[in-house]
Design brief:
60s Ribosomal Protein L30, Chain: A; mainly beta; single chain; 62% strand; nine-stranded mixed sheet; 1 helix; flat
């Protein structure tokens, strides 16, 4: 993955270009930690050799895994980075396009790039903090924190 800062003000904007075979979620998480990102949003397009999406099962309070074992286009990838305790946490959703034009979408759990993924990340001047929601067990943004 390569990164380039496009501008610093009023909000820092960074282009992240992922390479073939990059594992998106951990690389984005590592980048967020290294850069001290604590309140950011991002969007992306590109393609993947495969992915695992998730659907949050309310009764189980866990994600049902949706494997995508084929080459797909990233039609939409949107997310945020917020603090979960003292660590930045990536939260992303994706809509992936299949060869036949059908789509599959959900929470992005895993993704392997092929051939590229182009991400635009915008850092907000404030901060967002995630706190554990007792009902779901999920780390959710707490506007009042």
């Amino acid at each position: 993955m390569k990164a380039k800062t496009l501008n610093e003000a009023p909000e820092r904007t960074i282009a992240l270009i992922f390479d073939k075979d990059d594992d998106v979620v951990p690389l984005l998480q590592q980048f967020a930690k290294a850069q001290g990102l604590n309140a950011s949003r991002f969007s992306a397009i590109g393609a993947l050799s495969g992915a695992v999406l998730g659907y949050f099962d309310w009764e189980r309070k866990d994600y049902l895994r949706i494997p995508v074992d084929e080459q797909v286009e990233v039609l939409s990838l949107n997310g945020d980075i917020a603090l979960d305790g003292d660590e930045p946490k990536v939260h992303a959703h994706a809509v992936l396009g299949r060869r036949d034009g059908s789509t599959v979408g959900g929470h992005l759990l895993e993704a392997t790039v092929r051939p590229t993924l182009e991400v635009l990340l915008v850092e907000s001047p404030g901060y967002l903090r995630k706190t554990c929601d007792r009902e779901t067990g999920l780390a959710l943004i707490d506007i009042g924190a």
